[in-house]
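Troubleshooting: if your tokenizer reports a length mismatch, compare your output against this known-good record of 105 residues.
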Amino acid sequence: MGEEKGANGWSILDQPRRRVRNKLRDRKMTQVILTGKTKHGKDRIRQHGNVWNVTSMSMPVAPHKMMLESLHETTTLRVSGETLRFKDARNIDKVDDKDFDWQFI
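Known-good structure output:
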């Protein structure tokens, strides 16, 4: 007996896993507003802004953290006389981060 297929041609068994992956993919570019709690946090907000993209809600090695990326290329690096610009990235704790308070937009 063959495996039952859904309307989209995918196996019925694969559909729940695909839905979970799609939800995670859709959340990847959610944004948060950061508020600095410490001098370090306030300095980072001054340098990179208070609105950040969430690129990952958890990582295999640190499930209690989320990965953020700044909206704009605010970091510069000079290499061989050429200036490179790139976005800043950082991990923060989902609950009770020492440097930042945050909320989803």
